[in-house]
Amino acid sequence: MGIEQARNHLKRFGREHDILESEASSATVELAALALGVEPARIAKSLTFMASDGTALMVVTAGDVRVDNAKFKARFGLKASMLSPDQVVQLVGHAVGGVCPFGLLPTTSVYLDESLRRFTTVFPACGSANSAIELTCVELEELSEPRGWVDVGKLAASLAPT
């Protein structure tokens, strides 16, 4: 799948030409921030978990946020169990490094984390390890067609203010 599937998804909204591709890898939050010249927190990372029915549950968070296990369990009724790289490809349709909320297999449910709302624009990947798109939260919500907004994140300990 990858970038072409994400591009086809974004084409439905007339946004396929807004994909930013770079020579540099954007496979991690840190690499994406360097490639795009933005602070890591503005990278919208797509975290994938196993749902109770064997499908994928994706939570898109700000780059400086980790999933709070207690909040996740309270919201979804299950332990936050990350998918393996093979499961990500099988259930989501994108390889690790380019996972994004666009052009997904129907076995994936998307949720957006409240941590993203701090920013005017954020940068989710677009299906490959060197792609992204700049979107407002309203645009991200429109283009990713999530099941809703959730509050399951917490500021990463290494990034928390002291």
Question: For the largest beta sheet, what order do the strands appear in spatially?
Answer: 6-2-3-5-8
CATH architecture tag: Alpha-Beta Complex
Distance between the termini: 42 Å
Q: What is the fold-level CATH name, i.e. the topology?
A: YbaK protein
Question: Which structural category do the helix and sheet elements fall into?
Answer: alpha/beta
Unreliable spans are none
Discrete helix count: 5
Q: What's the mean pLDDT score?
A: 94
What would you call the shape? Answer: globular
Assembly level? single chain
CATH class: Alpha Beta
Integer tally of domains: 1
Strand content: 15-25%
Key phrases:
single chain; 162 residues; alpha/beta; YbaK protein; five-stranded mixed β-sheet; two-stranded antiparallel sheet; 5 helices
Topology:
Blueprint: H1 3-11, E1 20-21, H2 29-36, E2 43-50, E3 56-62, E4 65-67, H3 69-76, H4 85-91, E5 108-113, E6 123-124, E7 131-132, H5 137-144, E8 148-150, E9 153-155
Parallel strand pairs: 2-6, 3-5, 5-8
Antiparallel strand pairs: 1-7, 2-3, 4-9
